[in-house]
Specification:
The structure holds two protein chains of two kinds.
Chain A lengths: L6 E6 L11 H9 L4 E7 L5 H13 L4 E6 L2 H14 L7 E5 L1 H5 L5 H19 L8 E4 L4 E4 L3 H12 L4 E4 L14 E2 L4 E2 H14 L3 E4 L2 E9 L2 E8 L14 H4 L8 E2 L8 E2 L2 E2 L11 E2 L5 H5 L5 H6 L12 E7 L1 E4 L3 E3 L16 E3 H8 L19 E8 L14 H16 L2 E6 L9 H10 L3 E4 L2 E5 L11 E7 L4 E7 L1 E6 L1 E3 L3 H8 L26 E3 L9 H19 L3 E4 L4 E3 L10 H4 L5 E4 L4 E4 L9 H5 L5 E3 L4 H11 L3
Parallel strand pairs in A: 1-2, 1-3, 3-4, 6-7, 6-18, 7-10, 18-29, 20-27, 21-22, 21-27, 22-23
Antiparallel strand pairs in A: 5-30, 8-9, 11-12, 12-17, 13-14, 15-16, 19-28, 24-25, 25-26, 31-34, 32-33
Helix pairs in contact in A: 1-5, 2-3, 5-18, 6-7, 6-15, 11-12, 12-13
Chain B lengths: L9 E6 L3 H10 L8 E6 L7 H9 L4 E6 L10 H18 L7 E5 L5 H18 L9
Parallel strand pairs in B: 1-2, 1-3, 3-4
Helix pairs in contact in B: 1-4
Chain lengths: ~650, ~140
Amino acid sequence: MTEPPKIGVYICDCGFNIASVVNVPDVVDYAKGLKGVVVAREYKYMCSSPGQETIQKDIREMRVNRVVVASCSPHLHEATFRRAAESAGANPFLVHMVNIREQVSWVTKDPRQATEKAKALVAAGVARVALHSPLERRSVPVRSEVLIVGGGIAGIQAALTAAEAGRHVYLVEREPSIGGHMAKFDKTFPTLDCAACILTPKMTAVKNHPDITLLSYSDVVGVDGFVGNFKVRVRRRPRYVDEAKCVGCFECIEQCVYKTAKFPSEFDLGLGKRKPIYIPFAQAVPLVAVIDPGTCIEFKTGRCKQTCVDACGDRDAIDFQQKEQIVELDVGTIIVATGFHVFDAARMTNYGYGRLPGVFNALEVERLAASNGPTGGEILLRDGRTPKAVAIVHCVGSRDEHYNTYCSKVCCMYSLKLAHLVKERTGAEVYNFYIDMRTPGKGYEEFYHRLIAENLHLVRGKVAEVTDLAENPAEEGRLTVVAEDTLLGVIRRVPVDMVILSVAIEPQPDREEVRRMLNMSCSSEGFFLEKHPKLAPVSTMTDGIFIAGTCQGPKDIPETVAQAEAAAAEAIALTSKGSIQLEPNLASIEEGLCSGCQICIPLCPYNAIELDREKMVARISDVLCKGCGVCVAACPSGAISQKMFEDDQLLHELEGVLSR
Amino acid sequence: MRKPEFEPRIVAFVCNWCTYIAADAAGVARSRYASNVRLIRTMCSGRVDPQFVLTAFEKGADGVLLCGCHPRDCHYSSGNYKTLRRYTLLKKMLSQMGFEEGRLRLEWISASEAEKFRRVVEDMTEQVRRLGPLDLDGGD
């Protein structure tokens, strides 16, 4: 651009967010005196239509050719203002945002200091934008395939939504069957729908959908590439049963040399047993057997009679030689739906979990209540007795500064649901010990009142201890729950037979590896961080990667499903045009200045730079460069520059921030 | 009349993916911190040319803070390691030139570490305030 900079500065009050701390009129006056500034204005909400129109009008009528918007973080509204400038006929990269909300008004107490800092940042923005030049976005083709990591209800719903839109979906699940935690539940709150009745048709739909490739018993082990063009490596663990040949007839399992199931079933959380060859549950998808080499005699001794092989007969599905396989997938977008981990209640030793046999965690009781569970739906103690009194302890590992400070959101509701199921199945007296009852959701408060009407004992107080030490004859041979009833102001000792711990929802233990692999961020609790808590709840900071379900934070099934559909919609929208535009912040080399020293070549993390041996100059590939700028900082002859982050621009910005 | 307390000027070069987001999060959490540190955003901390640091001091900065993603967390896989090497050299060079320890600082601050960002800014401001103004001309 040859014409001299005519800079417009637009300072946002952000309602009171900025204006209550920063003296905006003062900053406007200051901006008017800066070099190249032809107009500076204040407005209540710069991001609103009238705000944007003000900028557009100045571009059209005053021939403003550079724009500085001092408002919130560019991560929030850079795109908004670039679009506004573009539709007024200006190049979007002649706009620069100055962050005076997150970096100034929200964090600075003293209005004078805040105003000074705002002025310095505006000065920096003005100095920088004067050197901006119009840039072109580069367009890259994108693949339409979607990878979904995790086959719980979030992954299932996202897969079905994307596949219904005609996208090919790869659904990767590490367990032998999809279904996740929801498959383990008996009923769901507040409608008391049978979980399997609403989930298993969806699982079957996944299996039968022509556009879904289900990779169960598999892990994503590597992700390369970038938005629209990810290369994914998936490790398929050997089942030792050929998925294509197995029909799920259960014959091999029945004919296994172990006449009875002997080993703890993972799906039943150890409350039920399985054989070395097993199908995790009768409604599993895929309905394919899997052999656990840790317990199978053939793998342990090599001298098994292989009755399973005989039972399979001509189908010949059992293959002890099966090896791990690595599958490579090309996808455009990735939806992460890796779910949650249940809090290990043994960490709270005062509740006796793992030590006192009458103490269960809530998920275990879900298995006991489920008709496909180890007891056929009867809620029994470990010794087979039916409990006469049951205590349900809320907030185990949640809202507790020693474990997790956050509320796990679903525990009150599932505790009420379990109270109902326990009463229904056993007729026991049920005591719910809660800190606060939190039931915000459609139909949830009504469910709470329904449960109160079922003669539930509600005790407000955090349980101090669960003990088998009796203090009186009524406690003899039972478990006693000790808690302060904070409504009555007395310490209560309630003798019961069974204690159910309503454990917290925690992030998965391996989230660090997943986070690193996909270049996402975590919140301080360890849940994956969304791009914006309100306006981009399923996006991440990495373009093309979305999150859904409890890997993002505690949530119930309706929320998870809604989020999964949103993530699928985002993935579809992103790739629906067949190409996307990327930021132009690439590095490039000015041949005349390059001395061919090759310092830059090994520094590039993407192998995007190579030497032109004929001319002895380095060359950067536009396709491979991701725009980090590492080579720019290293070039000793100043031959490399990075668009949007030119040396001059940064040095002027530097002078600006130091100007006050 | 009491002399007003010295307010250092500190420039922080922060990467777009980790520390800038931590700074945004500190804002959202309404963390209060000193207004002395001013941020310059680059895509990667590896973009920060050592020359920028020297120029910052030359143009009046009393301290320079470099911030990037934790090791193994870099959005560009290894940019932060390059930052670390440059920092180590710069640090050596600055000390030979008579700069006090503490005027240049490198911190890894991830997107979720809003509290760490606040702490580092407060701490750096206090540290440089104690050191006093940077005097490149040897006092005149």
